[in-house]
Structure formats: structure tokens, C-alpha cells
Here is the input.
Amino acid sequence: MLIVKKFGGTSVADKERIMNVAKRCIRDYQEGNDVVVVLSAMGKQTDVLIDMAKDINPTPSKRELDMLLSTGEQTSVALMAMAMATFKIPAISLNAFQVAMHTTSAYGSARLKRIDTERIRHELDQRKIVIITGFQGVNKYDDVTTLGRGGSDTTAVALAAALHADTCEIFTDVDGVYTADPRIVKKARKLKEITYDEMLDLATLGAGVLHNRSVEMAKKYGVQLVVRSSLNEEEGTVVKEDVRVERMLVSGVAADRNVTRISLVGLKDVPGIAFKVFDVLGKANVNVDMILQSIGRHGTKDITFTVPGDASDDALGALEKNKDVLGYEELSINREVAKVSIVGAGMMSNPGVAAKMFEALYNSRININMISTSEIRVTVLIDVKEVDKAVNAIHDMFELED
Amino acid sequence: MLIVKKFGGTSVADKERIMNVAKRCIRDYQEGNDVVVVLSAMGKQTDVLIDMAKDINPTPSKRELDMLLSTGEQTSVALMAMAMATFKIPAISLNAFQVAMHTTSAYGSARLKRIDTERIRHELDQRKIVIITGFQGVNKYDDVTTLGRGGSDTTAVALAAALHADTCEIFTDVDGVYTADPRIVKKARKLKEITYDEMLDLATLGAGVLHNRSVEMAKKYGVQLVVRSSLNEEEGTVVKEDVRVERMLVSGVAADRNVTRISLVGLKDVPGIAFKVFDVLGKANVNVDMILQSIGRHGTKDITFTVPGDASDDALGALEKNKDVLGYEELSINREVAKVSIVGAGMMSNPGVAAKMFEALYNSRININMISTSEIRVTVLIDVKEVDKAVNAIHDMFELED
Here is the structure.
């Protein structure tokens, strides 16, 4: 088997943890597998480097920031190779230049384009464990790029796809994907399996276990993902295309507090006005999620939508700057909201799932602010203070603990 | 003018110093020069990284150690580019991969083979200050190498040679080359100029201002070096091929305390025995310096020689392991010795210089242990406790303060 194993910053934060990760990888190697390890920077090293940069220049060039940040993973991989050597296991570290991890040019948020597997194959053929820097790449100018937060997951999946790995294990500080956040729902249960689409919806909705782009890529190339804990030996959750025939109606409940609701009141009711609003936001790089359009007074329109909480300032700035073009009367903003969603591939063929969710919320006297749905997801916007109550009520209603 | 400026770790140890170096480079840039900056890792970062490595693996692979250490300079150059940007000066950092700094494969002590100047020229043509990682390279396997301690000097000189720079300024914490160590000799005087050969002898003899290989390379390619202080605006010392016609007899006095004397007593007096001894030491990578061979008792030979103090354990190990092959009766070792040397291109045509040096030592009642000479140097081995007295006596005898 060829196994790609990815460990985040927490898993390699100090000597003891590095040794533990080394041992874990060596076990697979000694069972005869080819092992490729992808690492993030140690602990909070990326933040430390960002602080160093900002101390010198509050708005550092993204190119130079990537040059700086990429030292973090290079440090991890070199130390890991040294750790494995103490167990007399041949291991070699490779950075983005050496793997030829080609990306787009967008510093800070580059996308992987192509990986040359020649060097990796060569090292695996010599029965070495190959340890690769996550999160980073090289663009066509030969400059260092980074893939953005959580990018190491994407590196791991891309490597698994390029190498046709049998499995890609993502180690985190949780031991799998749960029916709900165990910190909120005491009875939350770990899922054995989940589909890519469910995982995507969960990732987007802030379950925070896997980086969204990595799941998209895994789906596209059919890479089998396993989400496991680096702290214990639990089996984790397998993410793949098809799950067992008897589907659960709902796989999980997710909550996302990083939401802001913005309303534009009194827009002119003319064709193309919605386009103009979302064009302005798109150009400001703001992702719009739930959208509600309604008729206002005196032949005007109101448009309400949600944006990620950390993009709300950018959204506000863009909307206020373009007030004349858009011609709204009033802009209102609410940061005290949250999204709660149910996700499940079984939903597709089962009408009435949404109604059951609304019933749970109604029984708990929780007001629904906005609703959006996809084939395998129902999301409601509610008051942020009601999130825990809502998630528990829904979890109970669908009997997810069983 | 094209100027290469090299700053060591002390000069970029913190934000304030980085800003100072940035300003200093920008001044040259704003006068219309093309500026290439070579940096070492910040402060003691290289030592910090070595300690991290050794904490995980007391004998880390040299390949992985180089992979780790090279992050140090990459951090410096990225931060420097950010610092320059705060002054609205276009600057770009480049690492060994980006410069295509080709070296031999010897990890930890690689030698530069070839530099592609295309990328650097391209950036200079766009009127950018180009900031390059010192100390590191890439070998033919595409692996990171380092040039050994002081390697950043070599990087700077190699770049100056490859780019046909008009001058190569090496910034250190002293403001030039002195007739003797100012900490030992109060009356020591800064030299305006010195020849490559004199500088080479001084470097080898532990004056410690410039890395030996960098001076050799500067001589080979005719690169004009300037040794200056990063702390003040003094003019420094120019190192070049020819100095003014009227030569000083002696340019300076140097002391080197990193010396151990080893004697092999009672070797068989057969041909090839000296070869065997130095072959054993060569294979253990120990540099032998002064050598004295004498007839011992009963038709045996004694060989006494000096090795660098930090190589004495390696030397001892190799000699003891090969005791049977070498067949000596006794091995004695003295770590309490030091070398004191006078260096001067004017010595060549002036007999009697050595005698004058011995006279100074004799007047101070300092015992000479061993003597070695070259065309422009006389070195004596003395008791380490007498170094300061010896250096002062010699400095006075040759009236170097004038």
C-alpha cells in the first residue's frame, strides 16, 4: 500500500510529539507500506512568523510573506527526518522546490496545478519514508507560494492523487467526524463513514475538521480520505464516494458562528440590481452565502444575505463605497447570527427532513431568520445565542446518538 | 556601480538592526548603484537550529541539517525585503534555489561551483535591490547544501565575481583589519589596504575577520573586497592584489588560540612513517599545520605537529585507533599552546624579519616551542598564557602603531 499521512502543527509542536508522529509513520513503513508524510509548521510557528513580519512591515508583500512562512514547514520536515533516523529508518525531507509542487502565482492563496512525482517515486523505490512540506508550492516565476490556511490538507490530497495512493490519512486533534460538535452536544457520535459531498457541506459549514479545497480535490480524483486523531489509535472517519447502502437520513449537525447578515433596504426594483450588488461584493473578494430577496415598500426591493464574519468589514466597505451606484436607502448589519445545518446524503430521496428540523427548532422556541437548502443540506440562520440549544434539539430529533 | 554588500548574523539580529541595514543599502541604491545584499541567519539562529536538531537526534544527517539550517537565511532575506518596502524601495529576496547557486554535494561544507546570474540580472534591470541568502546552495541532486561556518562571505564574493561587481563589502562587527587584535594591543592601528595573500594568512591564523575561502576566491577572480563595520561609517580596509609601492615590512600580528600540539614519540625510523601518520589524520578530516620531525632515542623518530583545537579529539581518536599500524611508543598532547604570527608582503624581500620577531620574544623571555614560515609569514608556537605579552612585544618591535 502507498499511504499519505498528513499531520498538522499541533501534532509536531515539540520534540515529544515529533517522536510520536515518527513512530506512528514507522509502524506503517515496517508493515511493508510506502509512506509519504506531509507536515505543517510546528505549533504556532506560522503565527510567530507573521508577527515577526508585521513587526517590521504592517503590510508585508505577499510574495515575501510566503518566502518567510515556507521556512516553517521546511523546519518540521527536516526535524522529522532526523527523528526517524534515530530509529534507524531511512527518511528524507523534501520542500516544494524539490517536489516541484507547481502552483498558480497567487501568493498567500495559490492553487496546486501539477506535481512532479519523479523524485518522490525515486526515494520511495529506495525504501525511504518521504517527508514533504505541506502548505507551500512554487509558481512559474520560481517563487515560493503558500496555499492559504489549511493548505497542508490540500497538499496531502494532491500528493495522494498524483501518487495514486491507496489512502490519505489526515491527522487532527479530533478523532473523526461527529454527528455534531462534541463540545456542544454531549451525545454526539463519531461517524464511521461519510461521503465527499456531506464532508464538503460540513467543511463549508464550519465543522472545521478538513479544509474545503482538500475535500473537493479528494472527490475530483477519488482519493479515499481518513480523518483520524494524532493523539490516539481510534479508527477515525472514512470520507469516500459511496457509503453503505442503508443511509442515515442525516449524518450530522453543524454550526457556524463566523457569519454576518447584511440587509440592503429600499433598492430600486429594476432588472439587474441583484447582479450589481453581488458584482460589487465579488470584486471585493467577499463570498456571499444565503440570499433572500423580498419586495419592499413603494415598489422597492430589499436584499438580505450572509457573508463570513471575517469578511464583513470588506463587504461593508465595498457596499458603502458603491452606495450611489447601488442606490439603496439603508444598510443594516447583524453580527449576532449563526448558521445551523443538517447534512446527509440520505436527504435527497426523503422529503420532510427539513420539516422535521424546523419542528425541532419550533419546539425549542428558536426563531428561524433565513433558510437555504441544497440537495444534501438544510441550513437555517438563527440568533447566535441559541446555537447550542438548536444543535442539541436537532441532534435529539433525528436520534443521531444511535 | 554594482555593489555586493554582505551582512553577518549580528547585523540582522533584530528589527532595529534590520532597519539600519536596509537604510544603509538604500543609500547606495538611491545614489544610482545596483545593489545586491547577501545575508546570514539572524543573530544566533543557526546555533538555535543546531540545538533543536541535536535535541531530536544527537547525530543528525548532514543533508537534513542543511535543509534545516537553510531556513535561517531565508528568514533574514524575506524580512529584509519587507523592511526595504517600508521605505518604498522595490526589493526582492531570493534563496539558493532561485539563484541556482550550484555547489558540490558535500553537505555542511559544500563548495560553490556555478551561479546562474540571469534571475539576479533580471531583477536588477527592474531596479530592485536583490537580497540573497548567504551560506547555502543546491547540489546536483537538487538538495540544499551549506558552505560551512562563514560561508556567507564566500557567497558574497562568488556573487561579486559572477556579476562582475565593482566592489564587495563585507560588514562585520569590527571596522577593518588591524595590525593586531585591538583587544590585546591598545596601540593597534587599522590598515587602509592589505593584499589578498596577507589577508589569507591573517584569516588562516585566526584574525577571524574574513572567511578564508572567500579571500581565496576574491584573489582568484580579482574581486575587490572591503571589510567594514555595520555599526559605523568608517571606511574600512580594502583587500586587493596590489597595495601602494612603499610596503610596510610587516602588516600585522595575529594570534590563534585554537591550537593543540600533539607529539608521537618513538616511531620506527622507517621510510613512509610520516606519510602514514598524516594519511591517518587526513582520512579523519584533521588539518595538520606546523610539523616538526626529530630523531628520537634508539634509532626512533618523534613527530610533533599542531591541529586546530576543535579537531583535537578527532585527531586523538584516529591516532589511538591506528596505534598498531603507526607503532609509536607514546602520544603526548598539549592544549595550552597558541600560535602568534607576523604577516607582511614586504617580508619577501627583507631578510631578518624573523630574527627581529624572535628578538622581541627573547626580550620578553617568551619561549618558542615550534616555528614555521611562509613567504609572507612567520609563525611561532608559544604557551597560551604568553599570547598577549608576545603580540604586544612584536607590535612594538615593528613599530606598527605608526
Summary: The radius of gyration of chain B is 23 Å. Chain B has a mean pLDDT of 90. Chain B touches chain A through 37 residues (CB under 8 Å).
